[in-house]
Structures are given as C-alpha cells and as structure tokens.
Predict the 3D structure of the following.
Amino acid sequence: MRSVAMQTALEMEEAKEHQDIVEIIESYNRNPEQLIPMLQDIQAKHRYLPADKLRALSKLLGVPLSQIYSVATFYRAFSLEPKGEHIIQVCMGTACHVRGAPRILDQLSRTLGVEPGKTSKDMKFTLETVNCLGSCALGPLVVIDGHYYGKQTPKSIEKIAQQYKGEKKAKKAAKKKGKD
C-alpha cells in the first residue's frame, strides 16, 4: 500500500508532466461540469484528444475516465485520432450533392493524396465529409480551417488545394530569401 507522501509525490510528478492539462483545469476553476470546454481546449492544442491527456484529465479532475470517453465519443466534433494541420470539410448535403460535391471530394482526394475520412501521412490535411453546413445557396461548399469556399468546381477547388499544399514551399522560399 502506498503512503500518503508517496501518493502526493506521484500526483505532483503527474501534474508536472501534464502542466497543460493542469492549466486547462484551473482555467475552469476545477469544475467538472466544464468538461466539454476542457476537451475543446485540449483538442485545440493537440488537434485531437490524446489518450494520455484524457487519462491525466480524469485523474487530475477526479472524473472517471469512462465518463470522459463517453463525452468525447458522443460528440462528433471531438476526435480520438490525430488530425491534420488543415481540416477540410466537404458538404455532402442534398443541395451540394446535386451540384457536384462528389466531384469536388474526388478532386480534393486526388490533389491532396488523402482519402475521405483520413489524414495525410505528412499530417498536413484531414479530409472529411459532413452532411450539411447550412449554406445550401453556396453549394457545393467546402470549408478549410473555418474558411468557407462556395460554388466550387473541381478546377477551382484544385487551385485552392494547391495553394494550401504549396504553403510550406512558399514559407521555405521566404525564409531562404530572408537569409540572402
């Protein structure tokens, strides 16, 4: 059986290891009723909900891990799998579908080299489909990192995707130019 001092020392070590979780918990006054915003903050920081962070949240907040997983798996906004740097959502609702959303999705998949529902190997892109984005007049609609791109065609979305793909190259060129 562990002594109280040993238990406290282990808890302090865990708190140091998961300082980011401690800060999130403290920002919500250690209130377990604020679990959803805490999970949102964790996901914003890591682009998903890492298992070790959920275990730390459970232990440090005093909420059963099963309850945390229940909330994390209930809401589609949460992900237990790593997401890419750029989240791309293609609306597949009826209005977008009849206006060509499947072709838009195919073009994005080919251009970015990632299948729908998956994340690219370089962790740059996650390609998702959604049932409706509530902007039917703009269909077919694609949302990239919260930016809405309406009335897309395979050609227009390829150009946008190429800009996101080339983002890294452009940043490297700018850095190289600054060194000259």
